[in-house]
Amino acid sequence: MIGAIAGLAAAGLAAGVATERYLVNKARRDSDDPHADEPFGELPADSVRMVTTPDQVAVRVETVATEETAGHPERVRATVVFVHGYCLDQGTFHFQRRALTESHLPVRGVFYDQPGHGRSGELPVAEYDMDALSDTLDSVIRHVVPQGPVILVGHSMGAMTIMAYSRRQPEVFAKRVTGAVLLSTSAGGLDKVSFGAPRALARTRRLLLPVFSRAVAMTPGTIDRVRRIAGDLAWLLTRRYGFAVPDPSPALVSYVEKMNTETPIKTVIGFTKTLLEHDEHASLTAFADIPVLISSGSDDQFTPASHSVELAEALPHARLLMIPQAGHVALLEKPEEVSPALLKFIDACVTNSGAEDVLDETPGSRPRRWRRRAKNPRSDGPSKDGEQ
């Protein structure tokens, strides 16, 4: 009897794996992939360094110049710092990074991998919180951008990191941050989101989390190996829950799935409780006097679009760009809509134009104008050697 059950289970598993591979291969074969030759994760950097956080995590930081500032650091008028989200890495901003480097904006870009992600060091503790992520952002700014105006761009957990940073470093934020971009994110209430799972399963996650955390603590390597073996299933789940268009680029799905799968299970679990308990509504007052661009995919299953609408309504100088038929990684799924809006926003922040016309002609943008500020107290200017 036991042998028969084991045989049936093995046959079922084999059939499931075969079905997954068939579906994955069919999706890849049927698609005329516009990103088949895209060099995901391979964009050049002008400089690469490791910054050590207060809790001794080595964080990989890359900087890039634009057409305007390449070879001319004295032309840099602001630095744009990009902060990626959960189970991803700095490559999430692939298309925005390339658009920035090809632009003629008088800025430079800073990209880094969050602790436990990408090519940064592992988490030093079992549970990591937003305060620690805020301290990482602070370390990056202090070491790489020690002076001058800063524009912060965050996706998902990266935007939550920016919110926490505004709370923990209020004086630096008020003095130096001249604009913020909050992509596919939330100020709180994620414990009520199902993340695309059945409601019954979503309700049990708090009960199961401690059990799974203990299992991860005992056998993290084994779990990571199983995750890598289940590549086809991970690919299908990424395609199903990460994107909204019916036929996303297979290469793009593979890239997102690769970032997800290469994130250690210790990191996956280490941030789960933090995300569910995240609440930075009180921090939003720090954004009241600066331009803010908020964007969300209309079909985001992880940080629903309603959370971005709530953010926009709470901030007097915010603009909301809703991306139709886009999921949680709208910046990868619909870069043709996100990147131009981002560049226009950065330009408005750098010129301190008040951004009256930003997004006015962009479909899906909220008909709301930023008011020109009476003065700009954050114009420290770049140093003579070009470092900010």
Beta-strand portion reads 5-15%
How many domains would you count in the coordinates?
Answer: 1
Order of helices and strands: HEEEHEHEHHEHHHHHHEHEHH
Task: Categorize the overall geometry.
Answer: globular
Unreliable residue stretches: 1-22, 367-388
Helix/strand/pairing category: alpha/beta
CATH class: Alpha Beta
Radius of gyration from the alpha-carbon trace, in angstroms: 21 Å
Instruction: Compute the number of strand runs.
Output: 8
Instruction: Count helical runs.
Output: 14
CATH homology superfamily name: Alpha/Beta hydrolase fold, catalytic domain
Q: What is the name of the CATH architecture?
A: 3-Layer(aba) Sandwich
Roughly what percent helix? 40-55%
What name does CATH use for the topology? Rossmann fold
Q: Compute the average pLDDT.
A: 82
Pfam families: Abhydrolase_1
GO molecular function, one term: catalytic activity
Biased composition (Basic residues): 366-376
Organism: Stackebrandtia endophytica
Explained architecture:
It holds the Pfam family Abhydrolase_1. One of its GO terms (molecular function) is catalytic activity. By secondary structure, this protein is an alpha/beta fold. The protein has a single domain, classed as Alpha/Beta hydrolase fold, catalytic domain (Rossmann fold). 44% of the residues lie in helices and 13% in strands. It has 14 helices and eight strands. The protein has helices at residues 2-30, 94-101, 130-144, 157-168, 170-176, 199-203, 205-218, 220-229, 231-242, 250-262, 265-277, 305-314, 330-333, 335-351, and strands spanning 47-52, 58-65, 78-83, 107-112, 150-155, 177-183, 292-297, 318-323. An eight-stranded mixed sheet has the order 1-2-4-3-5-6-7-8, sandwiched between helices. Helix 1 (2-30) crosses helix 9, helix 2 crosses helix 14 (335-351) and helix 7 runs antiparallel to helix 11. The longest helix is centred in the first third of the chain and has 29 residues, at 2-30.
